[in-house]
Amino acid sequence: MKDKKVEKLIKLEEKRQREGLELIPSENYVSQDVLTANGSVFTNKYSEGYPGKRYYGGQDYTDQVELLAIERACKLFGCKYANVQPHAGAPANIAAYFALLEPGDTVLGMDLSHGGHLTHGHPVTHVSKIFRFVRYKMKNIETGEIDYDEMLRVAKKEKPKLILAGFSAYTRELNYKKIVDIAKEVGALTMADMSHIAGLIAGKAAKNPFDYGFDIITTTTHKTLRGPRGGMILVRESEEIAKKIDKSVFPGLQGGPLMHNIAAKAVCFDEALRPGFKKYATQIVKNAKAMAEVFKNNNVRLIGGGTDNHCVLADIHSSLGVSGKEAQTVLDEVGITLNMNMIADDPRKPMDPSGIRFGTPAITTRGFKEKECKRVAELILEVLRNKDDEKLKQRVHKEIKALAKRFPIPKTFN
After folding, report:
1. How many Cα atoms within 13 Å fall on the side-chain side of residue 30?
2. Residue 282 host element (H or E)
């Protein structure tokens, strides 16, 4: 590379990833095949429109790669239609809203403080100024149980046009049947934002909302799905909804799709269709449960009381007297990357919350099993309890580097 400054930064980031442990639940490592496709000559091509209906010529191979991605996505998630063009998860959600709703329509979604996502109608987002968002929460923070009776009451009162399932920091499995039943009772459509657990669904380690009658699923293609950074919208069976989604993505929201990214999505879908991916998805959950068990055995409060997926949310301020920001910073120093996170009804501020959020997709990709995950959890607690002990932090950092060396980032997947 002639640009030595950028080359240096790439090499430093490679070193950081290689020598440390990535525990942010929304991050993962991709295969060399995904990297190759994402850096391919498809990046040179403008392809506004859809296969067979492009605005520019020269689309023979862009059409083929997009159709391949669509075919594989539908097979992977058990649906009839897929739009693989969204650049990311947030644009996928926005496109879905505009496809299904009119300005002023009501959406019932999970409260951000109880695990929802910014794009589910937080007041700081633009979509909250266009559509009307109302909330549901957990009934019991200690078990993670959603208050479905309250969801029904709110739905009857507010008459949402869309009921939204999905989350960013929720550790239990949703009852999709109850949500569909509530939607039918009030005449609402159902949408599941499965960005965090798409890989678990694909690998049969989590329930598929389509099996319970959900109308659409939006998702990212990275995180547990282990593909390139991007978004996707899936439609279970309605051709009418699929057409609205297509128009909403292009020309409604985006211009030319990122064809190199779509090629990389096609590769990752193929990887997720292989038998080994089911073992991977199952191991993600086993590993997360193992880490949660260590925290519980050390009397650290877990929001939801544990986990059924890839993610653990811990209230470390009440348990250890350490804020989420302090924890994120000190753990970075020893080569453990996770993120500070608000807990349900957090009394602290978003930029210095009570909790930390961590997960197992990336370390499971490296080959970690329960034994190694428990050890990492023990090291996290050891550092947080002794955050000012420099000798201890040096010892932990050395152990983390040794673990990372034992489990290198793989270039290919089974």
Report:
1. 25
2. helix 275-297
Tell me the C-alpha distance between 283 and 285, whole Å. 5
Q: Is 364 a catalytic residue?
A: no
Q: How many CB atoms lie within 10 A of CB 189?
A: 19
On the question of pLDDT at 120 being above 90, the answer is: no
**Which one of the listed residues 72, 223, 387, 393 is annotated catalytic?**
223
- In angstroms, the CA 336 to CA 334 distance is 6
Asked about 193 being catalytic, the answer comes back as yes
Catalytic site residue 385? no
The counts of H helices and E strands in the chain are 15, 17
User: What are the tens digits of pLDDT across the range 269-286?
Assistant: 999 999 999 999 999 999
Instruction: Convert the pLDDT of each residue in 316-355 to its tens digit.
Output: 999 999 999 999 999 999 999 999 999 998 999 999 999 9
pLDDT for 54 equals 97
Residue 56 falls in the annotated catalytic set: no
Residues found in the chain: 414
Catalytic position from the list 22, 66, 111, 193: 193
Which position among 62, 220, 221, 365 bears the catalytic label? 220
Q: If we measure between CA atoms, which residue out of 168, 170, 173 comes closest to residue 141?
A: 170
φ/ψ bin of 19: left (φ > 0), alpha (ψ from -120 to 50), beta (otherwise): alpha
Domains of the chain: 32-272 (3.40.640.10), 275-406 (3.90.1150.10)
In one letter, which amino acid is 237?
Answer: E
Q: Which helix (H) or strand (E) holds 293?
A: helix 275-297
> End-to-end alpha-carbon separation of the chain, Å?
31
Give the DSSP H/E element, type plus range, for residue 50.
strand 49-50
Buried/exposed 332-365: b ≥16 CB within 10 Å, e otherwise: eebbbbbbbbbbbebebeeeebbbbbbbbbbbbb
Any bridge partners for residue 356, and if so which? 314, 340
- The share of the chain scoring above pLDDT 90, in percent, equals 95
Tens-place pLDDT, residues 12-54? 999 999 999 999 999 999 999 999 999 999 999 999 999 999 9
